[in-house]
Every structure is written in C-alpha cells, then in structure tokens.
Amino acid sequence: METMWLTGAEWVAVLRIGLGLWWLESWRHKDKKTWFTGGGIDWAAGIADKHRWTFVRSGFDVVVKPRPRTMAYVVAYAELALGLGLIVGFLTPIALIGGLVLNLIYLVLMIHDWGEQGQNLMMALISAVALFGMSWQVWSLDHAFGLFT
To answer: Tell me, what DSSP letter sits at residue 66?
Structure first.
C-alpha cells in the first residue's frame, strides 16, 4: 500500500488515537454530578420506555433500570477507559470491540432519532477499520509489550 507521509499502519494508528480522543471527550463533556445522580440513566429510560422494539424496553427494564447509579458509572468509566486505552494503544483489540459494542447499544436505543446516529455510526466505522487494520501495530503499548502480534 502506498500512502503519503505515513505508512498504512501509521495511518490506522492515527484513526485509533483519534477515536480514543473522541471517547475521552465523551467522558470529559459529561456533567458528572448530574450523570452520576441519575440524569443520564433517567434520560435513557425515557427513550427506552417509548422504544418501538419490545426487547429494548424489557432489556432496559431488566438490566439498567434496577441499577441506575451503577450503570451511570459503568458507562462513564467505560468511555474513559476506552479513550485512554486507545490513545496509548493498550489492550487495543479489546477496547475497539468494547467501544463498538457501546456504539451499537446506543444505536439500537436511539434507532428512531437519526439526528443522534451520525457520531455513533462514525465511531463504529472507525472501530471496525482500526480493529481489522490491526491499529496496535505501531505507536502502542501493545506493540511495545509484544501483545496481539
């Protein structure tokens, strides 16, 4: 593969790092006080309650609603872990799959609101490209430690 300025592996690493910065921004911009006291989960519950698919409504009621505080922490700190992991390239394939799962869950929850889909679709696409492009080959702790070779 011929590219300008960087090698193909380095360009895919740029995507991985950019995606990590995007996840870090998702964590940073949250109003933590409101989020951790139920604001984010209450908002999602309102969306899930009106969802057209029964499995989304019932799944939310079983998994998320009984544990709003725990789920708020899981979501927020998953975003932080994904961001940091992707930026430094640590456990990169796991982070990429985890991020892809979070994006897909959000896409399913927000299926009726196309205005909300763009960011998650782009993040999911970058995750797939970074995963299948093995973005941990350069500029990563995974590469330095010989992980996932």
So the answer is: T
